[in-house]
Design a protein that fits this description.
It contains two helices and four strands. It is an alpha+beta fold. The protein is globular and about 30 Å long.
Length: about 70
Amino acid sequence: MVQSGGPADLAGLVVGDIVVKMGGEPISGLGARSANDSSAWPVGTPVALTVERDDAEVTVQLVPETAP
């Protein structure tokens, strides 16, 4: 799910995208440090996300926000 108006939507992510890199660093699974360490990606500071989409890699800029 991509919430309308949320950070993922604003970055251009779509349902089905598979995140493979954050900030240029490869990730794997939910246990990856870069995916779970919120201090690595400060609120308001853009981070590059590379996703697999339709057999291609696409890189977008996501701006983390404070959780509601």
